[in-house]
Specification:
By secondary structure, the chain is α/β, with parallel strands linked by helices. Helices cover about 30% and strands about 30% of the residues. The strands form 2 sheets. Strands 1, 2, 3, 4, 5, 6, 7, 8, 9 and 10 form a 10-stranded mixed beta sheet that branches.
Length: about 400
Amino acid sequence: MRQQTTHSTPQQIRVSAALDVQAVEHELGQLWKEHTAGAVDVEEDGAVMRARVLNLMVYVSSQAALDEVNKLLSEITSAHPCRALVMVAQSEQPDQDIEMFVSAHCLASGGTGSKNLCGEQVTLKARGRFTVELPSAAVPLLVPDLPVFLWWREAPRLHDQTFANLTRASDRIVIDSAAFRRPYEEILELVALLERQRREHAALSDLNWARLTSWRMLLASFYDVAEYRPALSSLDRVRIEYVAHELAPGVVAPKALILAGWLASRLGWRTVSQQTLSTDETGVARIALEQDSRRIDLEFAMVERSAAMQGWIARIELMAESASPQKFVVLRSEDGRYLETEVIGGGESRASRISVGGDKSEAELLERELEIVSHDRIYEEAITAAARMLGAK
């Protein structure tokens, strides 16, 4: 296999206060001419192919976040060549009008005559009162007739006007509920956002939901075993153990809430009338659910793990206290690398499946989300069910 390497080439564009779209396009054109002429050392003998399969708008609020995004885009654009419009809004800094930079992210396959696949990036920086103008500067630079993704790489400000302006220009919005600082309130706000986006046809992605894929797959696998189904159909207790996140240490981690919402929405569990999530004196959060008059007690318990596992789920137990009690368990190894299932009942314990359990990198998660444009109805129903546990009507 030929080795693949990614190269980036930043260049600054001088612009006036009245931003000129044609000036940006001209500078990008000049950048590609330099690549084609070999002025930029991507691959000495390779042709440069300018490729764009989508638009990706990215919103961050600090130089440190920009540095992280630049590294991630080198990975992401190798799988999804695009025009990336990265907005850096330093609203707490002294006023400074918008500055622009252009760069290329090129994937070189190696070998004489091979083509170097290149995407392009425009970075827009503003400070103070000028940050509100970033959407009006970025949106005209979108490439027509290509899907538009918005990656809001900040704690979501779901009522923020800048957020609203950018979502209106987007086909899909990517957030990360792991960054919620007020998880309960923001999950409720997220449901309201989903309702609005359904009307405006934009879809929503949550990287925290993508991190739950292995958990959902392993839990669903219990239902593939015919002999387990009678006990699974009479579940009456669910316990989710999670690691608290430093952003919101006193509440249930969003990932645990979303997984519970997924279980409830898929299995038809409803919140008992007038019930909401409440925390007892031991620190365990509880709520009662029901299905056809059968009560299911759901509890969330915080456990200690390494700092690298903040916000992660450590263990989930599905319990059926019948004449032959059974317990269905998915747990994460102490080092965080693996997930495994276990079925306990009839006086024995059976380990069933083991899966790689470490969370994927941010770049890997985003790459997957950029392949999806349609609405994720299962995620939307999971969030709605989680919101009901928190008191949504």
